[in-house]
Design brief:
The complex is a heterodimer of chains A (about 110) and B (about 110). Chain A has no helices and eleven strands. With about 110 residues, chain A is mainly β. In chain B, the strands form two sheets. In chain B, strands 2, 4, 5, 6, 9, 10 and 11 form a seven-stranded mixed sheet that branches. Chain B has a four-stranded antiparallel sheet with strand order 1-3-8-7, with no helix packed on it. The chains are: A mainly beta (about 110), B mainly beta (about 110). The interface between A and B is medium-sized, with 26 and 25 residues.
């Protein structure tokens, strides 16, 4: 089947904004998610957006959703070195059920001083 | 709560050996999952379980087996290990609702030589 696609790497300077993009597969997905994986750790849910929303803001995080293009983005304002991690977008395809998330390939964010 | 606990954290196997990755959770979650993570490939679902006594295949089940005799435990068995099974394995659990929030263990890094 189709994959949830992300670019593999992103490098930004501390204090700049980071934008991580994702193209997902199923326009019927009810929720779309962003997970964060810090080095040597498991994934943690960072934020999510309901499919009837275009935008969700949570402190330094802004999630934008374009359902027509099946495009999801995560913007991190004032990026800090602690934001260095791998970021995964994820969806629950309509045929999945049971919380069977399909994850993207992950984007490694590197924050430079 | 300890959350999701995986053991061992690291293991080296020879081709053809067998082993079991252990996973236990103390959150009384019905849903449990095993994923493998390979560089640039994201996470792929191996097996999942919606409750004690029930398991089902995910996207990449070949070469693996699971059991779910209790709500807490979901071991992953590798029979006849192959180099293609070199990966980082993550166990996760979730509530039975479709919120998409999975709780991950810290991972088990397996190398097959």
């Amino acid at each position: 089947g189709e994959d949830v696609e992300q670019s593999l790497f992103l490098s930004v300077r501390e204090g700049d904004s980071s934008v991580i993009n994702c193209t997902y597969t199923d326009s019927s997905s009810t929720y779309l998610y962003w997970y964060k994986q810090e080095p040597g750790a498991g994934l943690q849910l960072l934020t999510y957006i309901f499919s009837n929303m275009d935008m969700k803001q949570d402190q330094r995080l802004t999630v934008l959703l374009n359902k027509k293009d099946k495009h999801l983005s995560l913007r991190i304002a004032d990026t800090q070195t602690g934001d260095s991690a791998i970021y995964f977008c994820a969806e629950i395809p309509f045929t999945g059920g049971g919380n069977k998330l399909t994850f993207g390939t992950g984007t490694q964010l590197k924050v430079e001083l | 709560n300890a959350g999701v606990t995986q053991t061992p954290k690291f293991r080296i196997l020879k081709i053809g050996q067998s082993m079991t990755l252990q996973c236990t959770q103390d959150m009384n979650h019905n849903y449990m999952y095993w994923y493998r993570q390979d560089p640039g490939m994201g996470l792929k679902l191996i097996y999942y379980s919606v409750g004690a006594g029930i398991t089902d295949k995910g996207e990449v089940p070949n070469g693996y087996n699971v059991s779910r005799s209790t709500t807490e435990d979901f071991p992953l068995r590798l029979e006849l290990a192959a180099p293609s099974q070199t990966s980082v394995y993550f166990c996760a659990s979730s509530y039975s609702t479709s919120t998409g929030e999975l709780f991950f263990g810290e991972g088990s890094r397996l190398t097959v030589l």
